[in-house]
Write a structure and sequence with these properties.
mainly alpha
Length: about 100
Amino acid sequence: MDPARRVDKPFSFYSGVDRPLGVLAHSLLEFREAVEKVGTDSLEFHLYRGDFERWIKEVFGLAFLSSRISALRKEGARGEELREKLVEALEEWFRVYTYKRV
């Protein structure tokens, strides 16, 4: 699956319940870019609700990447460490995708 593939159901970032940031991700590449720029409060809000893993699994069908993100919740990742680990998980998946295409 191409990480730049745009989907009809974008991920919408929030900083809390009923507090949208106006940041949408229509692809996994856009999702990674958003993860790098939104506040860590938003990342924590979504991680601990299971929003990231649910979107990735339901919209893209990527169970492995979804489980990697789920593991971050179980580890208790927070703040900038959470951001770094999310980006790392996405980059790892991008490398696997690129490797498989060669």
